[in-house]
Amino acid sequence: MNISKITKRPALLLLIAISFAHLLNDMMQSIIPSIYPIIKDKYGFTFGQIGIITLVFQMTSSILQPFVGRYADKHPQPFSLSTGMVFTLAGIIMLSFADNYGLILLSVGIIGCGSSIFHPEASRIAQMAGGNKKGLTQSIFQVGGNGGSAIGPLLAAIIIIPFGQHSIIWFSIAALVAGLTLLPVGRWYKTQLHKIKTKTVIPNPAVLALSNRKIHWAIFILCVLTFSKYFYMASMTSYFTFFLINKFGVDIQVSQLCLFAFMGAVAVGTVIGGGIGDRYGRKYVIWGSIFGAAPFAIALPYVNFTLTIVLAVIVGLVISSAFSAILVYATELKPDKVGMMAGLFFGLNFGLGGIGSAFFGWLADKTSIEFIFQVSTLLPLLGIVTAFLPNIEPKRK
User: In Å, how far from its chain's centre is CA 162?
Assistant: First the structure.
């Protein structure tokens, strides 16, 4: 989308602001799985009930996103990002005082609604500010979220585990800071809206040569790849701590630090993957990211504690680059529907993660935590379907 001169090169300050807000947003979200060991012991929840908590959060984070994105394509809302933070703020406060299962579900649902409002429009603004470096731009935006997801368990280990559920309220400060950070971003976006309306979208010639059927088939393949990644990620983010506690006997804080190591690797890999995708092609990044993680993921449940953490870090580095490449590839297929595509794939991200968490929670109750890791680690093998994606990028030297 050739919007204005500012879009020909990355607007660094805007990208930093959006990425920082994304960090705070996903940090607040990541405390939800981080408190699972606490609330499981406090309220006597089963693994299935833990999975349902994740399902409610992820579904409210996902179902609304394509609709929000589609609405924003036609009716952009410059200050919707700050509005999303208001929902997150309310959910965080409620979660800190929730004393029964129903209130916990309601709290995480409200936090999920805030995420649905935030992500589609934030992704659109990031692409506007990023110019031609779409992969790098999405990686900078996404690394904020991944960084927040990594910091959340660490802060949970420092703040929530020692001081209990009520200490969650301290994270409401992050919602306020994020909301204030996004106000100038909204003002910039508002000044750009008239320029968007005066410009036409110039599709990729390779995409123009594709029939609607092939475009829809490519989007379906991207959905399969998203499924393979985020179903696997659900087992790691929701149950990796339980896996380490059950198999190796580590305490909760050590398990949270190990989860932090995995999520930190995911954040680093995201940045690396965006630049590689811009330089060598996003299809190759998707292929190497998901299918390339398979051998390390498959070995993870069968090694000792040290190698488990090493393999988890390697898997995090390798598999994390896929989402930015998938999202940019999808927006290339539908360049006039950036918001809807962003909403769809962010929605799939959260929705599949929620369904995966609920499924693996149910399976853990029926079998064991170790068994679900033996099963889930096979999912990256689905990365092989990348071979069916059409080549829509010019050959790079």
Answer: 27
Q: How far apart are CA 185 and CA 170, in angstroms?
A: 25
pLDDT tens for 41-67 read 888 888 888 888 877 887 787 777 777
The pLDDT of residue 305 is 95
pLDDT for residue 148:
81
Residues in CB range of 85: below 8 A, 6 or more apart: 21, 25, 114, 118, 175, 176, 178, 179, 182
d(CA 132, CA 138): 11
Query: For position 394, what pLDDT does the model report?
Result: 61
The CA distances from residue 294 to 308, 375, 377, 381, in Å, are 14, 12, 7, 6
Please give the average per-residue pLDDT across 349-364, as a whole number: 78
Radius of gyration of the chain, Cα coordinates, nearest whole angstrom: 20
Q: How far apart are CA 268 and CA 146, in angstroms?
A: 8
Computed over every residue of the chain, the mean pLDDT equals 82
Proportion of the chain above pLDDT 70, given as a percent: 88
Q: Is 112 in contact with 59 (CB distance < 8 Å)? A: yes
* Closest-CA residue to 61 (of 88, 37, 35): 88
Phi, psi for residue 35 in degrees, rounded to 5: -95, 0
Q: What are the Cα distances from residue 354, in Å, to 234, 273, 379? A: 7, 25, 16
Measured CA to CA, the distance from residue 265 to residue 259 in angstroms comes to: 10
Per-residue pLDDT tens digits for 4-33:
343 444 577 888 888 899 899 888 888 887
Digit-coded pLDDT (tens) for 146-186: 778 778 877 887 888 888 888 999 999 999 999 999 888 88
Site of tokens 């993680």: 293
Task: Identify the CA nearest to 250 among candidates 306, 317, 325.
Answer: 306
Q: How far apart are CA 327 and CA 270, in angstroms?
A: 13
User: For residues 232 and 377, what is the distance between their CA atoms, to the nearest angstrom?
Assistant: 7
